[in-house]
FAD-linked oxidoreductase
Amino acid sequence: MSRETTQALIERLGQRLGPAGLLTAESDVAPFAIDWRRLFPGRPACVARPGSTAEVAAVVRLCREAGAALVPQGGNTGLAGGAVPDGSGTQVVLSLARMTAIRGVDPVGLTLTAEAGCVLKVAQDAAAAAGRLLPVSFAAEGSALVGGVVATNAGGINVVRYGMTRGLVLGLEVVLADGEVVDGLRALRKDNAGYDWKQLFIGSEGTLGVVTAAVLRLAARPRHAATALLAVPDPAAALRLLTLAQEEVGDSIQAFELISGPSLGLVAKHAGLRSPIGEAGWSVLIEAASSLPGLRDAMEAVLATALERGDAVDGVLAESGRQAADLWALRESITESEAREGTSVKHDVSVPITAIPDFLEEAGRVLAAQAPGTRVNAFGHMGDGNIHYNVLIGPEHAAGTINRLVHGVVDRHAGSISAEHGIGQYRVDELVRHRHPAEIALARRIKAALDPDGLLNPGKVLARD
Ligand code: 2HG
Ligand code: ZN
């Protein structure tokens, strides 16, 4: 794209969106140009900030006419560089942050309809104000936007009970690559009429269309919660604890998180937070919630049995909401503490739940032998098989080599190289290595059908042609 074409496009965007809808000054576009970990710097031509679906459609059409690529961006909290532009200076960042409306909450039908720019926490609070639960939760929920949550099929801590975002989206409104608006904002539990096309856009990371609004499924809000932190001797004991908890408190388990000793070490060092049960090789944070009585007694029984069997060596059951929040603060501080510690290579992997202990043991062994000097910060959503197997490295280590070592172990356990964070630009090459050629070819056919000019977030998920 020539300089003149880019300049003409910026002018047209400015005319259509007005001053509130377009950022061009370097200092204004800077926050949109790089991810929060500052690993994927880019340089946008400008940042378009449409305030309505019609304006999103107009931006898409203008960019298409000019042959300019678009990079949709939500709260920019992603970990795979999926929402930031390349360094060409020709891509337009399409920020959804001005489309903040909650279009409706239905506490009987259990749905919430929100625009793409609504902050996830705001949507959660709106559901709570109606006495209901929006069951998608993760550390960045105060900044992440609904559109990004949907476009990345976000996971988080409650997947063990409520599934991924994909399962919570009942209806979707999207703008296609040619600027057409597809309104599928149906609030139906059952809808088997034709292709479920919305699934193509959920988790597509802005490469197939732009999500502008969604109808999300709500859940009943459990009246009682019980949160416990247990020190366990090893991951195999954590697995036995999961089975025990499933037997005793069943489907009221809404989080089952595994935390390694080094993770808690980083949190103590950088966030100044300490576990109330002291140092442990491994810990498990369990949260159960139910509206039926007796939950606390049942959780106490889980703790007692685990201690008796030696599957836990220590444990604490929160006495209050405040104490529960303190336990969660330990878990939610890991990512930022890791960032403060230095350079880390993230692996957002999943394996069959029963393979987690072997995966951890084997990955540790492989790194010790082939990448000495690296340090592992392993933690994650054990209840759904997702481990964040992050590796702290020094200047002598190459990130790509570490990726390949860890992902090799993932393959040996029939796992996935991204459980919830997505591919973005970070894992584009790894995706090709770890998926069958026929799967990549199918993905390319879908991309070609929906974005024939390759203008939607090029180079993300799939490498450019
Ligand atoms: C979490 O589970 C997030 O806290 C971030 O998915 C994980 O920092 C990470 O690797
Ligand atoms: Zn996670």
In short: The domain at 3-95 is CATH 3.30.43.10 (Uridine Diphospho-n-acetylenolpyruvylglucosamine Reductase; domain 2).
